[in-house]
Amino acid sequence: MTVTVKESGNNLPWVEKYRPSTLDELVSHQDIIQTINRFIDADQLPHLLFYGPPGTGKTSTILACAKKLYPSGQLNSMVMELNASDDRGIGIVRGQILNFASTRTIFKSGFKLIILDEADAMTNDAQNALRRIIEKFTDNIRFCLICNYLGKIIPAIQSRCTRFRFGPLDSAQIMPRLEYVVAEEKVKITECGKKALMELSGGDMRKVLNILQSAATAYEEVNEETVYTCVGHPTKADITNVVNWLLNFDFFNANKMIHELQINKGLALIDIIHEVHSYVHRIDLPASALIELLIKLSDIEERLSVGTSEIIQLSSLVAAFYIARSHINLPKDIE
Fold first, then answer.
1. What is the pTM of this model?
2. Which one, of 89, 27, 12, 93, lies nearest residue 57 by Cα?
């Protein structure tokens, strides 16, 4: 029996509650879905390799394929799914995966399916052991490897699979699903709230639904302010103030104001850096000053990513703008 959304209970995260269960319900990458549908209809499904950013439909696509390939009573016996929470070293490849691939299910025809989610976390030894299994048991098994970074999959496995890249979703693809969830959950949301969700998601459907659920649980209305507050991300007004302080205040006051903003709103400096980077591209600065400033911003971001002190890097950010200011005549206020 197929379990509908309403029957699945209210305790599930919305990401799982509204996960598409059939290929027709998927909202994006229609060219990939049509190709896979043709493979399935012709009974010529190859080994698959799905790669791309998180939240773009890779896992949902292969799970929907599995439900189309096998009746619900056969899913457990015909499909093996391993993800990042499972040990997938060479021992698992030579043991559990090899046993599943080498045995046939009595009275069931066709091939089995092994789904290796986040396959880029597998060791090189495990991948090398896997390539022989892929080749040897093709008549009995099909593999689907899912990863974020194609470069972490060895070339020998890439050559044995048909690769599909799942790019970030655009707003036109995300919005219908977002509005469906909003209607089902009776969420009070504004247009600026939807726009904020789109901007923060970066094409990640999972992130959209997670932020929506968090904001809807914490606040009566989901709007721009509540969305940004919920995820601890600086708002547009915050970034406008930060850039204004950096370009117009002296070193000590600019440093003090930004530090106080971080403390009051719980903002991470790396999030401020990302937003400031986007903002400075919209300011009319001489090319030489802009180039020097962007190089310094990238250096600060790199240092923050490896765990350096935010206080020191904040001073470095203010200093970078102070040096850029010395080369140009700036207006007294930034709109």
1. 0.78
2. 27
